[in-house]
Amino acid sequence: MILSRYERMVARRYLLPGKGEGFIFLVASISLVAVALGVAALIIVMSVMNGFRAELFDKIVGLNGHAVIQGYGGRLQDWRQILTDVKQTDGVTEATALIEQPLLTTFNGRVEAILARGMSVNDILKNDTLKGKTVAGDLRRLNANEDKVAIGSRLAQNLGVQVGQSVTIINPAGRTTPFGTVPREISYEVAAIFEVGVYDYDKAFVVMPIERAQVLMLMGDEIGMIEIKTENPDKVNEILMPLLPKLENRGQIVDWKSMNASLFEALAVERVAMFVVLSIIVLVAVFNILSSLIMLVRAKTRDIAILRTMGASRKSLLKIFMTVGLLIGASGIVLGMILGAIFLYFRQSVVNFIQFVTGQNLWDPSIRFLTELPSRTDPFEVLAICGLALLFSFLATLYPALKAASTDPVQVLRYE
Hints:
54% helix, 20% strand, 10 strands, 2 domains, alpha+beta, single chain
């Protein structure tokens, strides 16, 4: 929409408060702020929702892979050949043999439920989720020939254990004796304490060399599953399809969508719902633009009539008032983007401040799953939000602009 020089001058004049027009300017300012708050709210909420999904996906999939091959009965025989076949499959980037089983651990009379996880030492050191997340000790101290483990930070806190001390891991499925089954208990030195940032993992995971896990769980040379990572998580089933004939009667493939279906579906539904609800907030905000423009048209009726008698066309008046409304909306959008960026940058500080003022724990990791408020802004999503707000602003200008353009100068100036 290209404006002529006089159209720009009139539009600029109508954006500034004239004599007796302070109330109209106040309403226009409120409109701008309302649009800004609506856009900022949309950007903040959608970025946080995206951050939730991304963080959960990165950390859950980082430890569980995009898919796992599970052996029937919890045991996978001839796993070395299967592991070789998986690594040779096109699209597979990583395959890891592992054992995973819920057990119990004790330290100084304290008992905690754990999820013992056995992996090769090389795979432990290469794991992206564990890499750089050690808060005490060193993962390189783990050795296939020594009873040493790495545990989550929350578990270490609950047990009161530190690096160098020993915990006892209990396997209820122990050896059978004439007096019944005797649980298997083995003492392990804590070689490292890690914190991946997912509460349920940090309070339960115990990582050990796979050879020590086989001894603890009496599995001989067998393993429990093979964890797989692929080039494209969304096409994991297509990538692993060639493996199905080789796994017949030996195991089954379970992908990340099946393992975490309810969680990610809930996040997707909530994300759409929040977008719709907050879009209504932006829609309500642009009604302020509509009301301010209607008042402006009524206040400028005489000026509009004079402009019409001086040769201004209906199209020019339409463009002038649409420009005024769009400038208010566009200014609100820009301000909203700035407010959203500032809030997201200081989001954790804001949460901590509110917790300090209210005395309430707003971010309990045992409920929220993650230890910090995440955020990941999608530029295309921000553009969509800004486009939606601009569209609403444009629609809000149509009626006042058409009303101004249809002003009959004869009727207005008849008694002047």
